[in-house]
Design a protein that fits this description.
It is built from five helices and no strands. It has 105 residues and is an all-alpha fold.
């Protein structure tokens, strides 16, 4: 837990005052905003954020998404980016920490 808290504190220091946010209005917008979010991160910070992003994105997959994918109804899949809209890097890392903590219970 201390490791995650240290990561969260590091992430909060990284985002500074400007706090670029993820934009999930479209895939292109998400990619552009993602580039802005990670632009000033070093390799370690980027790795921490990337791991957190994957945890949050994968946790957003629902049973309906799995069923739609299995039946070939790709149009019915929800966007993996929707629940990331408007989040800063620190918020993504915080959410990943919450998910990890909930899974450890």
């Amino acid at each position: 837990m201390k490791k995650y808290l240290a990561g969260l504190i590091l992430a909060l220091m990284l985002v500074g005052c400007s706090d670029p946010r993820l934009d999930a209005s479209s895939e292109d917008a998400f990619e552009a905003s993602l580039e802005k979010v990670v632009a000033d991160m070093d390799d370690n910070e980027r790795q921490l954020f990337t791991e957190a992003l994957m945890i949050v994105m994968l946790t957003g997959i629902t049973r309906d998404d799995v069923a739609a994918a299995q039946s070939g109804n790709m149009d019915e899949l929800s966007s993996p980016f929707d629940h990331l809209d408007g989040l800063t890097a620190a918020e993504v890392i915080e959410r990943a920490g919450e998910i990890r903590a909930a899974q450890a219970r």
